[in-house]
Write a structure and sequence with these properties.
The protein is mainly alpha-helical and 193 residues long. The protein has helices spanning 2-10, 14-26, 32-53, 55-68, 73-89, 96-111, 114-133, 138-151, 156-175, 179-192. It is elongated and about 75 Å long.
């Protein structure tokens, strides 16, 4: 079955390669290797389509495969991997926040788990804020989290990261023995957090 499918994969006949594995499943050849191969083909197919036709078409392929093989966890893993990889690839985008949040929305069905979606959104804001904290630009990092909390008020991860960032900003003034600034930031944190 594997060799048969590989002949189609080499020619980028992805649908036919999946048909081979679907036949194996129909024949009750419930082999872990076949399920793993289905996940692999899903991964490689979506990657090839993304390179040739773009993200929307790749996402459509994965949605189709999730519908076709809902019982195969390896397809779900490939779809999630695609979503995470796409969002990670946007880090260098000039409009990372907008682009990454848009990608999460588009990939929501690929991710398939709202808790996982929340983690991704939290990671996006963490990445943005972290770019500021690395430059000791605490005010900008805090503003990122203020905005994130406004958009996602019930997301405890974002709220925790916001409080941690406030604390690090206060600590930076404390360590430099700048008591008035430390006190000012502390008051602001109490009012805004």
């Amino acid at each position: 079955w594997g060799r048969w499918s590989q002949t189609y994969i080499k020619d980028s006949k992805w649908d036919t390669a999946m048909d081979v594995y679907a036949k194996a499943l129909i024949l009750k050849l419930d082999n872990k290797l076949f399920k793993g191969n289905i996940g692999y083909v899903a991964q490689e197919w979506s990657k090839a389509v993304k390179e040739k036709e773009g993200t929307e078409q790749a996402e459509a392929v994965l949605l189709r495969l999730l519908a076709r093989f809902p019982e195969i966890p390896q397809v779900k893993t490939s779809a999630k991997g695609y979503a995470y990889g796409l969002i990670d690839s946007l880090k260098s985008s000039k409009e990372y926040e907008k682009d990454a949040l848009s990608a999460v929305e588009r990939c929501r069905k690929l991710i398939g788990d709202e808790d996982e979606v929340g983690k991704l959104i939290g990671n996006i804001y963490y990445n943005i804020a972290e770019s500021y904290t690395q430059k000791n630009d605490w005010a900008s990092a805090v503003e990122v989290y203020v905005k994130a909390v406004e958009c996602f008020p019930n997301d405890q991860r974002i709220r925790n990261n916001a409080m941690t960032t406030w604390g690090l900003w206060i600590q930076s003034h404390y360590e430099s023995v700048n008591w008035s600034q430390s006190f000012e930031v502390c008051n602001r944190a109490i009012q805004e957090a």
